[in-house]
Design goal:
Structural class: mainly alpha
Number of helices: 14
Radius of gyration: 20 Å
Length: 417
Amino acid sequence: MSQPSPAAPLLSDAQAWADLDACIRNWWDGDVHTALEEDLRKDPDRTLLHLPHPYTTPGGSEKAFPEIYGWDTYYINCALLAHGRTDLVKNNIRNQLYQIDRFGMTLNGNRTWYETRSQPPLWVEGLMRYVEATGDEDLMMQAYPLFKQEYLGYWTAPHHQTSIGLSTNRDIGDTNAPRLHAESETGLDFFSGFDGDVRQCVPLILNCILVNVTRNLAAMARQLGRDEEAGRWDQETDQRTQRIRKYCWNPDHGFFFEYNFKQARQTSVWSLCAYWTLWARVATDGQAALLATHLGKFLHPHGLAMTDRSYPSPHPEFSWLQWDHPSGWPPYQIMVAEALGAYGYDAEARTVARNFLQLQLRLHGETGKLWEKYNVVEGSLNFPKERYEVPPLHGWSSASVVLLGRFLRSTDGQAHS
């Protein structure tokens, strides 16, 4: 494992990054799909769900994952904003608002088998970044009541609310694999940190993002002149923040862990999910300092691994889980770099960005493609097989190139600038 260098240098091949960034800029239009009535009629499985606007897919022209996906779209939108493609971002947001209006939540994806679960609700933050970039307050006014509806009617409804005041994940449909499908809603399908059943846990990724959701709802309410309502959102933000600290912080280890509320104990897996507490400004300055000291547990010469080591799979269906060591996933490199920068750990953030981006550049040079995930220990694409081989991908893999490269060039510590 690597220790963050005190002053990580810029990329060894800045021109290779600039060339790939330009290439990605030209990919976006080819990554756009539609799900209009005529597309639904042509769908051989009759499982595609309607969307009123064109949308940007994670697989893009690589053909993998041709749907719109909930949290993938946030990272895609951040990269699109960096490239000035506000037209595509607006369409993606409008499609997600359409899903909330129709289904009560933004779906995991626009397929019939996704109708009963969501994904990490980053789209609220995505809307705020779009409004910041464009000044499109009309879209914010349309979004506010729908985001409010989703928070109250889905994320804090009885099926997701727990006895300790934090939220869990679940698939609310009549499913033949409820344990696995609930974990799919976390975005981490599959991961060792939830004791094999996320419905017993209050995931850090979800609850930290929900802190961000209510903070943004408060900002929207104030913008709309609803100060009393904004105050209630502030209170909701503070309460969830305190509960995450109470249940998930371990003072002996100086780290945040997943919490099993059914068994009233923390799980034992060290994972990058702890750094969502920095991203959402849940961690105190003292907690952030300790998290920064533990970064070396995950940091390798080619990026951050999801866990500090390989853990036994808690799922009898799988011997190895793809959201564990030695996997390095693009969205987590983006999130951790931004989160560290937000607390002033700029050198550490730059090391994260540089290590992973150089791996992406090298493997793109060797294969001509970007990939869904990377083995950051070996600097390769070699993995045990969970359910499928590593697919070539645009989506958040394109986003990590676009955003981490700009982060390394910037002086303001924001990975999305």
